[in-house]
Amino acid sequence: MIRNLKLKNVLLICSTGFILASCSSKSDRIQEYDRPALYWYNKMTKQIADYDLEAADDTFTSLESEHRNSPLLPTSLIILANAHMQEEQYALANFYLDEYIKRFTISKDIDYVRFLKIKANFLGFSYQLRDQQLLDDTIEDIKVFKQKYPQSKYMPLIDTINARVHMAKAQLDIAIADLYKRLDKPKAAKVYKEKAEKTWTKTEDIKEVDVPFYRAIFE
After folding, report:
1. pLDDT in tens, 122-149
2. What is the mean pLDDT of the chain?
3. How does pLDDT run across 141-194, given as a tens digit for each residue?
4. Does residue 40 contact residue 63 with C-beta atoms inside 8 Å?
5. Span of the secretion signal (predicted)?
6. Residue 41 to residue 25: CA distance in whole angstroms
């Protein structure tokens, strides 16, 4: 009898504690709205520092929805893009970079953001023989960057990326030429061999690399 009573008391205490904790947690969530922009910004940066990017994404959503014109938004987008790139989440990084470019085109940092987008695509190559469209898009983005921002301080890095993606493009064409050669289609093989030489003159200098590739200059 006494043992049963003690057991009931323990269960009652545990249940009460669980309910109070749930109510407290629920109360905290209810209060998470209508906060100053700086509150959301500081919370987001702390979550990033704690490697909780999913929570940081949610916090940015709160910042953006409650403070559409906050001067903290451009910086937040760049911080989130860099954080996702650090975790090799390049699609999410590009999402934030595209959002920045769409909303803050005349920003003084626009060349930096466009550089980051090129870098994200560059680091995002997983298979150099499969990401053909990404290669072509990156080459085009570099061409536009060099035309629009010839004095950008990021040009040396852009030039390095440009050389690497052109080598990758040439390597891809060489692989296709070899494939056609094995299939006994010499005309097609010749076409792709010439394309490779047009993209990168000394194709014999291009060495095969492991994937993921091109990342050493940023690590």
Report:
1. 888 765 555 778 888 899 999 999 999 9
2. 81
3. 999 999 999 999 999 999 999 988 888 888 888 888 888 989 888 888 888 888
4. yes
5. none
6. 22
* Alpha carbon distance 81, 74 (integer Å): 11
Number of Cβ atoms within 10 Å of the Cβ of 139: 17
Which three-class secondary structure string do you get for 124-186? CCCCCCCCHHHHHHHHHHHHHHHHHCCCCCCHHHHHHHHHHHHHHHHHHHHHHHHHHHHCCCH
Token pair belonging to 200: 């990168």
**Rg value, the chain, Cα:** 26
Omega within 30 of 0 (cis) for the link into 186? no
Cα(154)–Cα(144) distance, integer angstroms: 14
Task: Judge contact between 212 and 121, C-beta under 8 A.
Answer: no
pLDDT of residue 25: 40
Percentage of residues of the chain with pLDDT beyond 90: 49
